[in-house]
Amino acid sequence: MIGDAPQHTGLADSEAPAPRILLRGVSKTFGNQNNGGGTLALANVDLTVRDGAFVSLLGPSGCGKTTILRMVNGLIAPDAGTITVSGQAPRPGPDMGFVFQSFRLIPWSSVRGNVEFALVETIPGKAERRARADRYIELVGLSRFADAYPSELSGGMKQRVALARALASEPAILLLDEPFASIDAQTRELMQIELMRLWTLRKSVALFVTHSVDEAILLSDQIVLMGPRPGRVLEVIDVGLNRPRWTYDVRAEPRFIELRSYLWDRIRTLVLTDPQSDFYGRDLSANI
Amino acid sequence: MKIAVYRLLFLAALIGLWWLASTQVARNLVPSPLATLQAAQRLIAEGRLGTALFDSLSIYLGGYTVAIFLGVPLGLLMGTIRPLGKTLEIFVYALSATPRVAFIPLIIVFLGLGPQAKILIIFLGAVMPILINTYAGALNSDQDLVEMARSVGAKRQRIFTQIVLPGAVPFIIVGLRVGATIGLINTVVAELYTAVKGLGGLLAIYGNTFRMAEYFVVVLTLALVGVVVTEALRFVEIRLGRWRRSEVIV
Ligand SMILES: Nc1ncnc2c1ncn2[C@@H]1O[C@H](COP(=O)(O)OP(=O)(O)O)[C@@H](O)[C@H]1O
Ligand SMILES: [Mg+2]
């Protein structure tokens, strides 16, 4: 029933906004392809992210979510297929903000230094750059730690620094790789709301990676369900919940509950039928 | 603070052992700590120690400085320009495996016995660890951080100065420290093999005439120079490594 929900297929109906990010037949193999030892990370992926959309990539680990973000950012090139961002070949730069799954903070720079690092190209003035950095450090609630080094922060705090760094250049396109995975539940909820507010305010595009079903439903316009080995798109689902979503209890909506159980089911099946998975073939209905 | 006390206790134990040895070993081969102290006062008063120290330090620092100014940039270039590094590394490793003493006769033929020859001998010893460690540091740069820098649109030069170079600093410091030690060893070697001068020269003179108290003074002076240089480097390292939560490198 949910699979029948209206999907964006990339065949533009004239009403819809122009595609911002477009992947057509994209494949990527890591490692040595000649002797067959490589991993096919992505096989023939099509994906359309329209202007102003919040799109989540949802799926178990190893299905190529991070690889898609890196290719969209222009950090690595696909082996086959085409990618365009705003109609052009992707190029890294301050127009795109990337929150890396592994934070990637500069260990010898302070929190402020790390955020400023992303602003050098766009804001030449030192004082201005500092003011901008401080504003986003404040946004993620780390003002008291602006002068601390990453080694002095918890995992969740590091992740918030990475988020501040990606947001600070006020990019038109946000690429977020499980940006809330290490953050504690209360802070995560706050950060999710801040992200939604910024995204609404800036009318930016967000491509958001998560393996949390709830988070995907809460944040997204569309959820791209992905499967592993090889990484591929299984289904694109329109969420269709009213925005802004922080003004009411989204989780109590029938649509939320319906989507949630549907997605859970699909992901559980994916994990239990994937021969590479740690839980391959487990019978969850068996008595303990 | 506690460590300082332990170190002093260990030093006292060493001196005690030394004193014990001096009373046991026959024919005054080991001078007593007191005799050594008196010899030191004599050598300082006569100005011999000062002159020798100055001679040694000037060629040592000369050779070491040239080694730094050549080894660090070359190592960084080799680490960032891969074809250059891959071309040169085998020659660097070959040269570093060759005992540099083997070159001394050749160096004497070309440069004579003067300070140039000495500085070259010191340079050859010190440059290899500096070069090899800097190269390793540049090769070891954190590729995730480099990708992050590319993602924010940083240019090559900024990636080099703000990511690759600071990441290589701990390696470079190790190279500088090993280079400093080998440089000091080569200082003595150079002074023994070329014109007999400096602390190495004093070693030769007192060693050959069995003036063991004076000989010990020179050995201890060399040890002291080694300690001062490596401690100075450690100070630099700690200053540069403030971002580390704990001092991991000893
Ligand atoms: N740099 C890499 N080198 C080799 N294999 C890689 C690399 N990056 C990703 N892979 C492989 O590609 C597949 C997809 O990885 P990734 O995009 O990180 O998945 P996800 O983010 O969904 O967990 C995995 O099997 C992974 O092992
Ligand atoms: Mg990933």
Structural description of this entry:
The complex is a heterodimer of chains A (288) and B (250). Chain A has 288 residues and is an alpha/beta fold. Chain A has a domain at 100-170. Helix content of chain A is 31%, strand content 22%. In chain A, the strands form two sheets. In chain A, strands 5-6-7-3-8-9 form a six-stranded mixed β-sheet, sandwiched between helices. A three-stranded antiparallel β-sheet of chain A has the order 2-1-4, covered by helices on one side. The model of chain A is unreliable at 3-13 (pLDDT under 50). Chain B has a domain at 55-205: MetI-like (MetI-like fold), CATH 1.10.3720. Chain B is mostly helical and 250 residues long. Chain B is 82% helix and 0% strand. The radius of gyration of chain B is 22 Å and the shape is globular. At the A-B interface, loops of A face helix 7 and helix 8 of B. Bound molecules: adenosine-5'-diphosphate (ADP) and magnesium ion.
Largest sheet report of chain B: none
Tell me, rounded to a whole number, the average pLDDT of chain B.
Answer: 89
Helical percentage of chain A: 25-40%
Strand order of the largest sheet of chain A: 5-6-7-3-8-9
CATH topology of the domain at 55-205 in chain B: MetI-like fold
Mean pLDDT of chain A: 88
Radius of gyration of chain A: 19 Å
Distance between the termini of chain B: 16 Å
